[in-house]
Amino acid sequence: MYFVEVILPLSLSKTFTYKVSEAEYNYIKKGMRIAVPFGKSKIYTALAIELHQNEPTLYEAKEIHQILDESPLVTEIQIAHWQWIASYYMCAIGDVYRGAMPSAFLLESETIISQKQDAVVDELQLTDEEFLIYDALQHQSSLKVQDIIAIVGKKNVFPIIQKLIDRNILVLQEEVIELYKPKLTRYIRLHQDYAAEENLVALLDNLKNAKKQKDILLSYFQLNASQKKPISVKQLVENSKVSSTVVKALVDKNIFEEYHLQEDRVSFDKNQKEKNLQLSTAQQQAFDGIAAAFTEKDVCLLHGVTSSGKTEIYIQLIEDYLAVGKQVLYLLPEIALTTQLVGRLTAHFGNQVAVFHSKYTNNERVEVWRQVLEDSPKAKIVIGARSALFLPFQELGLIIIDEEHEQTFKQYDPAPRYHARDAAIVLANSHKSKVLLGSATPSLETYFNAASSKYGLVEITERFGNVMMPEIELVDLKDKYFRKRMKGHFSDTLLENMAEALALGEQIILFQNRRGYSPVLECITCGHVPECPQCDVSLTYHKNKNQLRCHYCGYSMAKPTNCHNCSSVDLTTKGFGTEQIEMELASLFPEKKTGRMDQDTTRGKYGYEKIIDSFKNREIDILVGTQMLAKGLDFDNVSLVGIMNADNMLYHPDFRAFERSYQMMTQVSGRAGRSEKRGKVVIQTYNPNHNTIQQVTNNDYIGMYKEQLYDRHIFKYPPYYRLIKITLKHRDFDKLKEGAMWLYQVMSQNLDMPVLGPEEPAISRIRNEYIRTIMIKIPQNQPLGGIKKTIQKMLNSFEAVPQYRPIKTAVNVDFY
Ligand code: ADP
Ligand code: ZN
Ligand code: ZN
After folding, report:
1. Is the shortest distance between the CB of 633 and ligand 1 below 6 Å?
2. What pTM did the predictor assign?
3. What confidence tens digit (pLDDT) does each residue in 476-496 have?
């Protein structure tokens, strides 16, 4: 008897055994997908990870439905890496599999399929079965895979559907409801009826009295002969000097056909390749230092101040790896940064750059997956956010992790709760490739590893082109308020600097780490603050929508006109967010254009790009934003950065608060004066003498590092201890309290290390679920594997207690 061992895309830790024939046994390879039945009637796409002849003892092995791939879609290195992730981050292997693959690869009987809206379908090219599916979708907008099984009259439909997805005819339903609309360019081509020459002659004859239409047609032929690129409507109109209504008339007559392409996917002309850049002396030294470090170590930290030209060093390094045929993975903390980077990299490497992240559609992600698997020349360099780590690299030579200190590299929810930087280092190890971590403000953990020689360390202390580090001026808010030198939330110092910069035509960035208008609406009479009915937080006031909104669950209500508690109409706002700053600017600088960049203004696939582009094009004078601004954007005309209030960052109940405040303020400051003129930063604070603020002012990373490291040691935090945080959630307050206490007691009795809790977190209820947390601190020298096994056993026995079973638990290893 022959069996295949598979992973199912479900939150299950076990793998499952299915029966196969001898022929199938010989055909299947590890990493191929297989459609299998599971449960009563479901079909899933499973992943083969092992072939064997051991019959399972606990259940009778079912037969598979169908083998879906002709060759492996997932490499053995990936399978091993995913298993490492499951075990290190204490989650189900099925969670990793599901999270790693584009969902178009994971068809299941419940998947809902639709026709792609602007699909160009040539019905004659469809097979009978494909036509049946296509035809059914002309009568209803979507179908479940199990409906398709009925329509086609056979179970094995996954490959047919997959092919139609690959050909851009079908899409998964989830994408149809996505809100964004990629920016599309309209292109034109001749209708296929006129492919034959005699028809074309007849057509021209027909049009002899419609001069304009004829002109545009001739113009089209001219363009078509002289360029290989698709012809856009815009180009055609410009070229023929005829209005676009004439084009439309020809489309209506079925002479032209209109189609749409996404702009960033139109092929890039290699001739535009930027000429080789010249590294500065400091850059060249850093480059040589990295090369030297890589001869001894697999990981190197590039600690270079903001605007030291790290990207150019990466580019030079990538060049070397491409030259020997390797693939390069470039991880970014934030999708918003990809546009700028893709621009810089394609200018250098042309069509070898591919992008992979969650805002790309399934079809696009499937395409990149296949290119990486084939080691295609179109995807030698992959830029992506953390999930790009799961791609099927063949010849991975280098991983660059830019802004490595960013916490967004850690996935928070759902499982797998992995840290992309750390998981990348493990992945690189199996590929025998190198990892370059880059940052102006490295995380304490990484700098610690570099300082203790586990990683190589290369530093650049000057900005590119001899630009000076920005000058930082501290403004004492207490004093300013006392002396009545404030207008709204702006000190006179900040306003003077702003007026000066604006007079010179320079741009300004204002940083406020809170969105909305103000975080709290308060009744002056009774002190009542409206809170979210589902979460334990006050609602944030959004003035332009006149709403109160919960930033945890999305709940919203119209702003009340009087207090729900005492009916008083005297309501006031407390604290302030980006929206309020933007409104104050409108009256302070009415003639200037302001923009806002926060979660509220950057929804959708191209939300960021719009704002970043108009700021870059200087259509916006003053940009107000949250921490999104701190993430490595490169603007050349910003001379002033204002930090509206440094204090709310410092006083977060979090052991990383000072480290993060330092990073955030230094990074935002780094946006100032990136070319020629020295930049200026104004930091408004109630605590100008706070160590962290002094460290930012003096650009004293090492001072911050040493102070924080000392605290981490004293208070038992990373890098000296590893943290595992267990979150428990339930709607019943008392049951949760009791369950959390039970688990805590078991853990503290069985683990010979600090176990803290069960704690009520600062926000102790979200979406009507109460929350408790338990924190385990594992000393660095203890064997992690054994401890995790013990923890898992205790979690299993917790789940075995009937009254605690409904309590949800989530394990977060290396909690960030
Ligand atoms: P960082 O990532 O270290 O903050 P960047 O790589 O964005 O810095 O570089 C800062 C600016 O200096 C960019 O505008 C970049 O184009 C420019 N620059 C850096 N190195 C060079 C170079 N060798 N030649 C020309 N311009 C450079
Ligand atoms: Zn009241
Ligand atoms: Zn809420």
Report:
1. no
2. 0.83
3. 999 999 999 999 999 999 999
